[in-house]
Structures are given as structure tokens and as C-alpha cells.
Write a structure and sequence with these properties.
heterodimer, A: 475 residues, alpha+beta, Uridine Diphospho-n-acetylenolpyruvylglucosamine Reductase, domain 3, Alpha-Beta Plaits, 8-stranded antiparallel beta sheet, 37% helix, globular, B: 698 residues, alpha/beta, Rossmann fold, 10-stranded mixed beta sheet, 7-stranded parallel beta sheet, disordered C terminus, binds flavin-adenine dinucleotide, electron transport (chain B), ETF_alpha_N (chain B), ET-Flavoprotein_bsu_CS (chain B), flavin adenine dinucleotide binding (chain B), Electron transfer flavoprotein subunit alpha (Modular protein) (chain B)
């Protein structure tokens, strides 16, 4: 089976469906849609055409057209993905939802918002903040990414310990199937077992089953008080070992973020920020929130005291927005900073059961030593989800890197599997990890996934080449 | 050692939003925080404490709730806290605030150093620090970016073998428009600090626990021996008469430059906008760059009244009368100038003058002096009085005098002394104070520069009069003849009109580049008065001591000017639309021509066309220039995050749909390769063109 190419005729049809101004052909413009936040050199691929439809009806018509003409279709949000999910590996049509960013309804009685998926995630919070509400499902990239991308990746953020990940907040979806049909799934319901839970099959499906054009999302009360602790430890091992201790004490932070020294240093250099990390090997950034400021303060203090008992060097407290923003900016900018200072790298998001977190660090050290690379590490330690980042040392040649990177990744995934973990906790499989997923997933499970895909998208037009390969090539 | 740090609790001004419908400030959800710039003063105090051993007292005047700010400072490591809170204090202006603080400092007792932030982010005046120093009669060093302490003057030895010693001298690096001034002064003294000095630490858990149980002293007016008339509104010389909201919407003009004609129109329009915003300094560089030139007969054709060129002492009544007579020949000149209102226009008494304090740089008069003249000319004309340009300098060149008169001064008063080589607040203030006591000006204007913002509050405190910082508009009120001073506040979210109804002189600092100089008239005649003011021998008691207390050791001048994006007034940025590295020079060339700083999008930085410190946006710098001109940048949301507070945005992008055009004040849909070089050429020739004209006129 081969895909067809985008012809003049198809372009004319796209222009009729979406309007000529929403059809992009200029190669200079297409380039921006050829990559996401994974390495351009390794993964970028040009689309033949980009369409930016402004309505669900237009989206459906484009999908119908692609399905009829056997043209590969890649849905795209903000392109902040870290698994190559939005890259059009087979060319074809990129359907960008950037113009579908309208809020259709805010329902203050049911505490839901119905919103198109092209909205930048942070906008949601800006809209309801004044009403004392917030959308808790957001990832760290909230100022960039779009809701649709979060849904497709089932993104998880810095608040997942207490609030969970995107899926918990998606109650309903307006969905365009690979055949081009429009359907509403789920609703403003707290419970719903009417048939298979298709909403949550779609959440995390990486755009391979269809396009979510709008969603009903759950809003919750914005906690009035927040206190952040920055805890310095002598070694990564000491820091990480503290995490299960905190969690087992029944204290529920919204976040426990881990940052090793290299991550902090790099981000600080990037932000021109200054933290007292002289004797410190790693840090935890711990956030407590709640309605009652006094209670939050005393809980934060309890966590701080616990960390000191566990051998922390120092505990810093940020209990106003200015200092909190200072700390979170450091955490949020680590990925960007590594891109600037060590551009040749592989950003991973391994996940292990919380109790196994302390065992991860020695594994990273071992793999780093074995392959002669460095593996700085940071991430959502409270979720057992760590961004181990394989970094090429400046002296290493590119050839060596290309040879070593897959071996090191394989060793990493192997180690994680043994700890009861998985290769991706939130960034997804996409293009980047599909070869590895194959090896670390049971054949039966893999076949179930493929069966779902074939049933939903028999022509295999919807985001092909992602998660796993199926039998179709470029025509 | 005892260090006092003055801090203020402020609303988070960077989060202030305006309600687009009502045009009012949205106050809900605003937290009160320690003035972010005071954190640097606290940090520096803590660093000094760690090095030399010290006790730190934090001092704040504010509502009872300001206790939280003090506790934050305690949790960072300060030892004691004093809160000045009283209904009587509410509504105090900077003069009254500094007065209350001064009383509190006296009550606190002996100290070596007072540290303060450069300014508070809400009021944005930076006046309280220097005014407090004036009240206490101690030297002030403002905008310090680094401090060193020594046991005595000149002994540059650091801590001897790490053993703490009792310091008595402070050496400071002071940030100025020209670079850094290295000064030394004696303790006790007051230092205001800039961000560069330190990176504020976070409070520790231990610190928080200490701060929670620590005592915060509360003093009211009674404890300080102040009456109800001494502070608050009754004790404040200035009055806010009007508050209004600046326009928030962008005009959003759009031009399409597809053909020759369109391109020419676009270039013209951008040029006109730059000119309108005062980005093309129209002052002849030749007139400015003469400070250290020898006086030559070349200028003998000049129209200055030469009989006044010989040095005259201010004490010589005759000289003053003589000059007054020249200024307004119809008026008798012997009478004592009074600080009466200009209502006395028809009386025989010569009217109090309007003054500007001209500003000089290494290379001569700074263009801001001519902007001040333009402002003051309107005021003097409205008051039917004369305009004097006051220059404090080692010596003033004739051609500088010439330029001041050509740009609007009726008279030039040069306070000349070798002591005046570099700015030292107390020395300059003393000289100006003496001059003002003689001549009793009605209005004194200076530039809101590091010099003006230090000197003026110090002077105002000495005069006992009000001062308005960083004005962008000045006018004379009908009927009363009072000066109406309008300035932005709360991070530019509101505008306030302020006047000083009962005190003289009325004083204001004026935001640089907020006005255009007048076009020079080299035929204008004026008067020159030179005075070797305040030779130490003749100086009043105390003066000499002050003059010696602070001295300038050296200057480190920036030859290239600041490459500081965050502080830049103009930024020219380029993005991926420039296509390749070599083309980025188009952006640099325009920036050079304008004297702007170069910025870039992440795409340009990623491609290595320019280094990361130039990146503007979410993961780069957040900037708020007067002018942001960008070419070949699409305006991605992350890029826009960095330019939300830019005042005027000019976009050049060939794509009519580019999101940058939607936020631009002037959107040019066109090819940057056509537009940038022509614009740069136009700017260059405009600059040199004017200067040729200027030379010609001279
Ligand atoms: C600095 C940084 C920090 C990050 N932090 C986090 C984090 O904390 N947690 C986390 O989980 N991720 C994080 N990410 C990864 C990324 O931001 C998330 O995966 C995000 O959800 C992607 O959203 P997007 O809109 O950019 O999607 P894109 O990259 O555009 O697309 C991602 C996938 O979603 C599909 N898709 C997009 N829209 C739709 C739609 N409407 N219907 C169907 N499919 C669609 C695409 O086909 C693609 O497969 C981070 C990335 C960066 C660069
Ligand atoms: C987490 C994250 C953080 C980011 N942080 C930043 C940040 O801090 N700063 C930042 O800038 N970006 C940032 N980005 C990247 C951002 O999303 C955009 O990719 C980037 O800003 C685009 O740069 P650009 O405008 O130069 O390029 P493009 O978007 O490619 O735009 C180039 C523009 O040039 C125009 N053009 C082409 N030729 C010409 C011509 N001859 N004449 C005139 N115009 C022409 C085109 O029409 C186009 O609009 C971030 C992204 C992520 C995911």
C-alpha cells in the first residue's frame, strides 16, 4: 500500500474547504511545521502542504479528502512535542489547529469549559483565574503547548502528584474520525460507563486515531495558598531517596521536582540566575498548596523539617509569587537551557514506580560511565518520572555519538524495565521511541494497539509512522 | 558595624492589568511584596554582615500589613525590624517619607551604612534614598553596583588575613549613563544599589521560623516626636491633582510595501515615527563634542554677550543685577528676587527664573540638556520670565554656552570649579543650593538621569520643597501659574499630574527623550555668568567637610555604550526571515545607525547568527524599549512574551498574515531586504545631515 502525493487538484480542494489564506505552500513557511522540539537534524521532515482550518466542519472535510485520496495527514498543535509526534514523516498534509482556539462555553455551575483544542494551555488558566478556578492538567510547557497536543500526549505536569495528568480533566471530546465523521464523546459527567471509554482511549493516542477539535475540560478551585521549598542535598542519591520518605508520610505535595547539579547550573547560567549550589549535588523543589495559608505553611514546614532530618544541607522557602516564579523558572527552563548549551542530546522521560526512584540514579551513573557520555537528570521525581538527558560530550565525534546514542538508550530502557518502569511517562512514543517501544512491550499488547488502529483508520492516513509502523510507504 | 536597610512593601507592578472596558487598574489578585529592588539592598547588607560582622536593622514605613515585608527581610537574615506605621503617615510624598525615615534613623541610633534599593517599583521615583541622606547630612552614593569597605581612607588592604576589622570607608562602583564611577566616601553614608550588586538569597526555613517569632518594633508619629502636620498629606509639599490612564490600545497602522513607491512610503513612515519618538537625536554632535576643546577665536563671531564672559563671583551682587538687567532690560534689577507667584507680572520686581540643570558628559553637553531647554522654554514663556541654564562643570566652553543659548536659554550660569569634574552629589548640591538661595528660581528642572535623580531629591530635601520624578509632560496651570507635572506611575499603568502649591522652587526631573529639542537659533543672544563657585576657602561651614568626604577615584567609561537589552530604549531585532548569517548585518547596521541594541528571535539564535544573550522572548529577555523594530520575525507567542511591555512596535514582515503585524503599532508588509538598508541609509544621512547643517550655522 502506498500513499498518494498532494496534487494541484488536492490543493485547490483544500483552498475551497479552508479558504486560500489557510493553505500554506511557501517552503519558508512549511519549514516551521517540519519539526517539533526534538532534534531537527535527526527527525525533521517537510510537509507538502499545511492547512490551518478555522472550524470543525473544515477539519472533517479535510480528513474526508485525505482519506479518499490516501494522503497522509498529521495533526499538529504548537509543535512543542518531544517525541516527534507532529512531524509529517510521510509528507502529505499537516493540519494545524492553531486557529481553532475559541472558548465555546465556560459553565460555572458544572465547573467545566468547552474549548477548541488549538488554545494555548496557559490561556485557559488566564481566563478563569479571576474566578478562583484553574485547569490542573497543564504540563511545564504551558506557555507554548496547546490543549490538543496535551490531549494527544496525555501530558503530565509539575502538579501531577496531587492533581494527576491531563486525562483526569478531559470529560468530553468533539472528535473527527479518520473517515471524516464528527462525533461528541463523553460529556459534563462525573461518571460514565456507557460503552467503552473512548474519551480516554483518545487521550494519549498521539493523533493516530483522529483529531480532537474541542474538549470539555474540568475546572477546579484555585488553591489560595502555595508554599515552595527548595531543598539542597549533597548528592542526587540523597535527594532522590528523600522522595519516597516524604510520600510515605501522608503529606501530599503538588509537586516534588528533582534537579541534579548540572541541570540547575545550566538553567541558572541560561537565566542569569544565581543559586547557592556550591556544596550541593542535587535539589528538590517541593510545592504544597491548599485553601488555608496557615495550614499550607505548617505542612511545608513539616516537609522541610523532614528533609533536614534526611540530611538536607539547607531548605529555602518561597511563599510569594516573586520568589516562587524565580524557582519554577529555573525548573521550567532546564530543557531549553540544555538545548542551548548541549544541543546534541536525547531528552528522555523514563518512569518508574515511586519506590524505585532511588535505584535510578546509580543506573544512570553506570550507563554514563559505560558509554563515556554524561546524563544530567531532572524531572517529576514525585511521579517517578525523570528527564534523564543523554548529552554528547564536546570531544566525542558525531559518528561516535550516532553509534553510541541508541546503545545507551537501549541500556537505559533495559534498566528501567527491570525496575518495573516504562520508557515514556509523558512525552509519548511518536517517531522517536517507536523502535524501542517494540522491544519493551509484549507482542500481545503491541498487537492490540495495532488492531485498534486498523479498526479506526483502515486507510492508515492518520498520523502514520508514529508509535508503531504499519505496512504502508511513500508513493 | 550597624547597617540599616530601608525597604518598602509594594504591589506586584509587573502583574498589574488594566481593565480594557473601565480603563481602571485590576487590583484583585495583586500580592504585596518586598520592593524587588530593595531585595538587592538586603542581600548586600547580608553579604557585608557575613564578611565584616554586622547587625542589620530593616526599616519600613507603611500600612500595618507592611510587617510582612519586614518579616521576609528578617527571614533572609536581617536582625531587627522597625515598622513606621501611623494614620498620620498615610499619603506622604517622598519628601515627607524621607523626613519620617530620618527621624526613625535618629531614634534607632548609631549606624555606619544605610542601604536602599535604587527605587521602589510602584512609585518609581528613587527619591527617598538621596533625600534621606540630605536629612541626615550624610554623603550619598546612588546606583552602586559594587561596594568595598576599608578601615580608613586610602588603605586598600582587604580583610587582614580574613580577620574582620572595623571599616570606616566605603568604595563604590556607581553605574552611570557613561559607565562606572569609582567613588570613595566616609561612613556613615547612604548607598542605593542596583541589581548588578548581588543576587538576592531566598529565605531559609530556619530564617522563616526566626522571623515568625521575632519582634517587629512599631513606631508612630508620637514615638518619633512628629506632629500631624509633619507627615502624611499635610506634611507633603506635592499634591496629586489628577490621575488618568494612558491609552493602552495600539494604533495598528498598516502599510503594504510591494512596489518602489510602497517601499519609499514605508521607509518614510518608519523614519517619521522614529523621529516623532525622539529616536533620531537632532542635536548637532559638533555642539556636544566640544567640552575639552580649547577655546578658540573661531567662535568670536558667535553672538554671546562677551562682556559677561569674564569670571564673576556669585557674591558680586552687581554681576547678578547686570545679568538680570540683560535678561529683561525693562525691569529694574536691584530688587531682591522673591519667591512670589508669577501673578506679580506687572510689578517692578524681576520675576523668578525657570532653571534647567544642564547635563554634561565626557564629550560635552548631553542632548538631554537641549530637551530640558525645550520644555523650560514653554514654561518660561507662559510665565513671562527668563530661562537660565545652570551648568556645573570644571569649565564651560564658549561653544557650549553658545549651544545652550541657541537652543533656548536666556542666560547661562556656569558654576565652575575643578571640584566639579565628576558628579558628587553633596558637592554639586551645595553649590546649587547657594546659587538658588541667591536667585530664588521659581522652577528647577533636571533630567531624570542617574545624576538628576540623585541630585534633585538631595536638593529638594535641603530646600524643603517637593519634587516630581521622571515627568513626561509639564505645563503651567492657568490662573495660579503653578507647574503641572505629569508622570507615569505603577509601571506606566497610570499617569498622575502633580503640583507643588506652596513651596518654592517647584522641582521636577524630566524623562530623557520625552521631548524634542527646539531647532537652534544661533542668532539668539543671551547672557553668560561664570562663577568659580565655592572655593573651599570661601565655603560655608560644613561644605568643605562634605567636599572631602566623598571623592571620585576614577571613571570607567563605556566606549561602545550599553549592550544591555533589558535597559535599552531602542531595540532592532531580526529573525529567520533574514535567511542567512551574513544578512544579519542588515539588522546590526540599522541598530548602529540608530544607536539601538540588537535583539533576535530564537530561530536566529539557534542558527548561530547571533549569540543567545540577544534572544528576546519567553526563554530569552523580556524587554520594554520605547521602540521595538523587528524584521523577519513572525511573532510567535513565545517571542511576543518578551515584548509585551514595548512601547512602540514596528514590524517588517513580508507575510500579511504574520502574527507580529497584529501587535505592531506600525506594520509594514514588505521585504526586509528592500526596507532595512534604505532605512539605515536614511537614518545615517539624517544624522550626519543635521550635524552638517549645525556646523554650517556655527
Ligand atoms: C520546555 C518543554 C517542557 C515540556 N514539559 C512537559 C511536561 O511537563 N509534561 C509533558 O507531558 N510534556 C512536556 N513537554 C512536551 C510537550 O510540550 C507536550 O507533549 C505537549 O502536550 C505537546 O503539545 P503541542 O500542542 O505542542 O503538540 P504537538 O507537538 O504539536 O503535537 C504533539 C502530538 O499531538 C498530536 N496532536 C496535536 N493536536 C492534536 C489534536 N487536536 N488532535 C489530535 N492529535 C493532536 C500531534 O499529531 C502529535 O502527535 C515539554 C516540552 C517542552 C519543549
Ligand atoms: C519552549 C519554547 C520557548 C521558546 N522561546 C522563544 C524565545 O524566547 N524567543 C523566540 O523568539 N522564540 C522562542 N521560541 C520559538 C518560537 O516558537 C518561534 O519558533 C520563533 O520565535 C520563530 O522565530 P522567527 O520569527 O525568527 O522565525 P519564523 O517564525 O520562521 O518567521 C520568519 C518570518 O520572516 C518573514 N520573512 C521571510 N522573508 C522575509 C523578507 N524577505 N522580508 C520580510 N519578512 C520576511 C516570514 O514571513 C516569517 O514571518 C520558543 C519555542 C518554544 C517551544
Amino acid at each position: 500500500m502506498l500513499y498518494n502525493r498532494v496534487t494541484e487538484e488536492i490543493i485547490r480542494e483544500l483552498a475551497v474547504i479552508a479558504g486560500a489564506r489557510n493553505v500554506l505552500l511557501d517552503p519558508a513557511k512549511l519549514e516551521a511545521y517540519s519539526h517539533d522540539e526534538t532534534s531537527k537534524e535527526e527527525y525533521a521532515h517537510m510537509p507538502e502542504v499545511v492547512v490551518t482550518p478555522e472550524s470543525t466542519v473544515a477539519v472533517a472535510a479535510i480528513v474526508k479528502l485525505a482519506n479518499r485520496a490516501h494522503i497522509p495527514l498529521t495533526p499538529r498543535g504548537a509543535g512543542s512535542g518531544l517525541s516527534g509526534g507532529a512531524i509529517p514523516v510521510f509528507g502529505g498534509i499537516v493540519i494545524s489547529l492553531e486557529k481553532m482556539n475559541h472558548v465555546r462555553e465556560i459553565d460555572y455551575e458544572n465547573l467545566t469549559m468547552t474549548v477548541e483544542t488549538g488554545i494555548v494551555t496557559n490561556e485557559i488558566n488566564n481566563l478563569v483565574k479571576d474566578k478562583g478556578l484553574f485547569y490542573a492538567g497543564y504540563p511545564m510547557s504551558l506557555e507554548t503547548c496547546m490543549l490538543g497536543g496535551n490531549i494527544a500526549e496525555n501530558a503530565g505536569g509539575g502538579k501531577a502528584i496531587k492533581y494527576g495528568v491531563t486525562s483526569r480533566y478531559i470529560l468530553g471530546l468533539e472528535f473527527v474520525t479518520p473517515a471524516g465523521d464528527i462525533v461528541w464523546l463523553g460529556g459534563k459527567l462525573a461518571k460514565d460507563v456507557t460503552g467503552y471509554d473512548l474519551v480516554h482511549l483518545i487521550v494519549g493516542s498521539e493523533g493516530t486515531l483522529g483529531i480532537a477539535t474541542a474538549a470539555i475540560i474540568k475546572l477546579i478551585g484555585l488553591p489560595a495558598a502555595k508554599s515552595d521549598l527548595l531543598v539542597l542535598f549533597r548528592s542526587p542519591q540523597e535527594a532522590i531517596s528523600c522522595v519516597p520518605v516524604i510520600l510515605s508520610k501522608g503529606l501530599i505535595p503538588t509537586a516534588i521536582e528533582f534537579m541534579d547539579r548540572r541541570s540547575v547550573e545550566t538553567s541558572c547560567a541560561y537565566l542569569n540566575e544565581n543559586l547557592p549550589y556550591a556544596q550541593c549535588g542535587a535539589m528538590l523543589l517541593i510545592e504544597m498548596d491548599g485553601r488555608d495559608p496557615a495550614l499550607v505553611e505548617s505542612e511545608a514546614e513539616a516537609v522541610g523539617d523532614l528533609c533536614m532530618e534526611q540530611g538536607a544541607i539547607e531548605v529555602y522557602v518561597a511563599d510569594n509569587r516573586t520568589t516562587q516564579e524565580r524557582l519554577w523558572a529555573i525548573r521550567r527552563n532546564i530543557a531549553e537551557a540544555f538545548k542551548v548549551y548541549c544541543p546534541v542530546q536525547s531528552l528522555e522521560d523514563i518512569v518508574v514506580p515511586p519506590a524505585s526512584i532511588p535505584a535510578v540514579i546509580p543506573e544512570l551513573d553506570r550507563i554514563a560511565a559505560q558509554f563515556g557520555i554524561t546524563i544530567p537528570c531532572y524531572g517529576h521525581a514525585g511521579d517517578g518520572n525523570l528527564h534523564a538527558t543523554l548529552v554528547k560530550d564536546p570531544e566525542m565525534s558525531m559518528e561516535d555519538w550516532h553509534r553510541i546514542e541508541p546503545q545507551a538508550l537501549e541500556a537505559l530502557y533495559e534498566a528501567i524495565s527491570k525496575l518495573g518502569g516504562k520508557i515514556s511517562g509523558e512525552h509519548g512514543i511518536g517517531l522517536k521511541r517507536k523502535e524501542y517501544m517494540k522491544r519493551f512491550m509484549s507482542p500481545v499488547e503491541l498487537e492490540l494497539l495495532k488492531a485498534i488502529k486498523r479498526a479506526w483508520d483502515p486507510n492508515l492516513i492518520m498520523n502514520p509512522g508514529k508509535m508503531f509502523d504499519l505496512e504502508k510507504g511513500i508513493g | 558595624m550597624h547597617i540599616i536597610v530601608t525597604i518598602k512593601q509594594v504591589p506586584e507592578t509587573d502583574k498589574v492589568k488594566m481593565d480594557p472596558e473601565t480603563g481602571t487598574m485590576v487590583r484583585s489578585g495583586l500580592e504585596s511584596i518586598v520592593n524587588p529592588l530593595d531585595l538587592y539592598a538586603i542581600e548586600e547588607a547580608l553579604v557585608l554582615k557575613e564578611r565584616f560582622g554586622a547587625r542589620i536593622t530593616v526599616l519600613s514605613m507603611g500600612p500595618p500589613d507592611a510587617e510582612r515585608a519586614l518579616r521576609e527581610a528578617l527571614s533572609m537574615g536581617c536582625d531587627e525590624a522597625v515598622l513606621l506605621t501611623d494614620r498620620v503617615f498615610a499619603g506622604s510624598d517622598t519628601w515627607a517619607t524621607s523626613r519620617v525615615l530620618a527621624e526613625a534613623v535618629k531614634k534607632i541610633g548609631a549606624f555606619e551604612i544605610i542601604l536602599a534599593g535604587e527605587r521602589a517599583t510602584d512609585g518609581d521615583t528613587g527619591q527617598v534614598g538621596p533625600a534621606l541622606a540630605a536629612w541626615l547630612g550624610i554623603p550619598v552614593i546612588s546606583y552602586a553596583s559594587g561596594l568595598e569597605l576599608f578601615a580608613d581612607l586610602g588603605s586598600a588592604g582587604a580583610e587582614k588575613g580574613g580577620v574582620p576589622f572595623a571599616p570606616s570607608t566605603v568604595r563604590a562602583r556607581r553605574l552611570t549613563e557613561e559607565g562606572y564611577q569609582i567613588l570613595e566616601t566616609e561612613m556613615p553614608c547612604l548607598i542605593t544599589v542596583v541589581k548588578e550588586i548581588a543576587s538576592p538569597r531566598l529565605p531559609t526555613l530556619r530564617g522563616k521560623k526566626f522571623a515568625r517569632s521575632a519582634q517587629v518594633l512599631r513606631w508612630g508619629a508620637r514615638e518619633l516626636g512628629l506632629g500631624t502636620e509633619d507627615a502624611g498629606l499635610p506634611g507633603s509639599p506635592t499634591r496629586v491633582t489628577k490621575i488618568f490612564y494612558p491609552k493602552v490600545s495600539r494604533d495598528g497602522e498598516r502599510l503594504v510595501a510591494r512596489d518602489e513607491e510602497g517601499i519609499a512610503r514605508a521607509v518614510n513612515r518608519i523614519f517619521a515615527l522614529l523621529e516623532e519618538k525622539g529616536c533620531l537625536s537632532s542635536v548637532p554632535e559638533a555642539a556636544l563634542a566640544t567640552a575639552h576643546q580649547e577655546r578658540t577665536s573661531l567662535y568670536s563671531k558667535a553672538s554671546t554677550t562677551h562682556e559677561n564672559l569674564e569670571r564673576a563671583s556669585l557674591d558680586q551682587e552687581a554681576a547678578r543685577n547686570h545679568s538680570a538687567a540683560k535678561l529683561s532690560p525693562t525691569e529694574p534689577s536691584a530688587a531682591e528676587l522673591s519667591a512670589s507667584s508669577p501673578g506679580a507680572a506687572k510689578s517692578a520686581v524681576p520675576k523668578p527664573e525657570v532653571w534647567i540643570i544642564a547635563e554634561r558628559r565626557h564629550v560635552g553637553l548631553d542632548s538631554v540638556s537641549f530637551e530640558l531647554l525645550a520644555r523650560a522654554r514653554t514654561l518660561a514663556d507662559a510665565l513671562h520670565t527668563s530661562l537660565a541654564a545652570i551648568v556645573v562643570a570644571p569649565s564651560l566652553a564658549d561653544e557650549e554656552v553658545q549651544a545652550l543659548i541657541a537652543y533656548g536659554a536666556d542666560s547661562v550660569i556656569a558654576l565652575e570649579s575643578l571640584n566639579f569634574d565628576d558628579f558628587v552629589c553633596e558637592t554639586w548640591a551645595d553649590a546649587l543650593f547657594a546659587l538658588a538661595r541667591e536667585r530664588k528660581p521659581d522652577i528647577v528642572l533636571a533630567a531624570a538621569t542617574t545624576t538628576g535623580r540623585t541630585l534633585m531629591p538631595y536638593l529638594a530635601a535641603k530646600f524643603g520643597t517637593g519634587l516630581t520624578a521622571d515627568c513626561t509632560e509639564l505645563a503651567i496651570e492657568e490662573g495660579t501659574g503653578l507647574l503641572l507635572q505629569t508622570r507615569p506611575a505603577i509601571g506606566g499603568n497610570i499617569m498622575a499630574t502633580i503640583k507643588t502649591p506652596k513651596h518654592k522652587p517647584q522641582m521636577a526631573t524630566v524623562r530623557p527623550h520625552s521631548a524634542q529639542p527646539l531647532s537652534p537659533d544661533f542668532e539668539r543672544k543671551g547672557i553668560v555668568l561664570r562663577t568659580q563657585a565655592l572655593q573651599p576657602a570661601e565655603s560655608r561651614a560644613g561644605t568643605q567637610q562634605i567636599a572631602v568626604r566623598t571623592r571620585v577615584l576614577s571613571m570607567e567609561r563605556n566606549t561602545k555604550g550599553f549592550e544591555n537589552l533589558e535597559g535599552a530604549r531602542m531595540v532592532v531585532s531580526g529573525g529567520r526571515g533574514l535567511k542567512k548569517a551574513e544578512n544579519f548585518k542588515l539588522v546590526r547596521e540599522l541598530a548602529d545607525a540608530l544607536g539601538a541594541v540588537v535583539g533576535a528571535s530564537r530561530e536566529a539564535v539557534d542558527r548561530g547568527w547571533i549569540s543567545y544573550p540577544h534572544q528576546v522572548g519567553l526563554s530569552g529577555k523580556t524587554i520594554s524599549p520605547e521602540i521595538y523594530l523587528c524584521a523577519g520575525i513572525s511573532g510567535a507567542i513565545q517571542h511576543l512574551a518578551g515584548i509585551r511591555t514595548a512601547k512602540t512596535i514596528i514590524s517588517i514582515n513580508s507575510d500579511p498574515e504574520a502574527p507580529i503585524h497584529a501587535v505592531a503599532d506600525l506594520a509594514v508588509v514588505g521585504d526586509l531586504f528592500e526596507i532595512l538598508p534604505r532605512l539605515a541609509e536614511r537614518v545615517r544621512s539624517a544624522k550626519t545631515g543635521i550635524s552638517t547643517e549645525g556646523n554650517h550655522a556655527l
